[in-house]
């Protein structure tokens, strides 16, 4: 059982798409694009405004990832497609981090409500740990608390395969 001493609340943001309301682009809490980040023929979308994918990350509605790491990776992916590179769908491992009152918090992957969170390195009382986030007997996320080096190592498990069994 986890006891919350401090709760951080992220309010979120609303993508600025009003200026596109009269365009032919599909808008739904962002600009809707396919798994290759195309919003229309020869129109690509990257960054906070891009709601990409179908199925997989974000389910049928797709997902927006609101961080600078994603916009860089997504921009490189789209630039390569524009220059003619073949390739699969854009499938990043979502990543967020924050420094709060001297604490580095990192989350790779996802943390579904139904997930089981299990500390695998360090400890909560020591305020330095890495936890695996497991859903349906799969590793779906990694949380690091004051453990940047160790969380990067654990994050590699997420990128190795979409079907990595949870380490037990």
From TrEMBL:
GO terms for molecular function: oxidoreductase activity, acting on NAD(P)H. The lineage of its organism: Bacteria, Bacillati, Actinomycetota, Actinomycetes, Kitasatosporales. One of its GO terms (cellular component) is cytoplasm. InterPro entries: FAD-oxidoreductase/Apoptosis, FAD/NAD-bd_sf, FAD/NAD-linked_Rdtase_dimer_sf, Reductase_C. Coiled coil: none annotated. Signal peptide: none annotated. This is Reductase C-terminal domain-containing protein. Gene3D superfamilies: 3.30.390.30, FAD/NAD(P)-binding domain (3.50.50.60).
């Amino acid at each position: 059982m986890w006891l919350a001493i401090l709760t951080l609340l992220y309010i979120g943001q609303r993508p600025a798409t009003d200026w596109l309301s009269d365009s032919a682009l599909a808008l739904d809490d962002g600009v809707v694009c396919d798994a290759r980040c195309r919003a229309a023929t020869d129109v690509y979308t990257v960054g906070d405004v891009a709601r990409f994918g179908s199925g997989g990350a974000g389910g049928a509605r797709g997902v927006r990832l609101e961080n600078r790491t994603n916009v860089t990776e997504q921009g490189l992916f789209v630039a390569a497609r524009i220059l003619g590179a073949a390739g699969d769908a854009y499938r990043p491992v979502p990543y967020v981090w924050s420094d709060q009152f001297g604490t580095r918090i990192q989350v790779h992957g996802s943390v579904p409500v139904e997930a089981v969170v299990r500390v695998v390195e360090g400890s909560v009382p020591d305020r330095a740990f890495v936890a695996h986030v497991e859903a349906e007997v799969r590793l779906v996320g990694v949380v690091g608390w004051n453990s940047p080096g160790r969380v990067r190592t654990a994050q590699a498990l997420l990128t190795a395969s979409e079907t990595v069994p949870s380490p037990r």
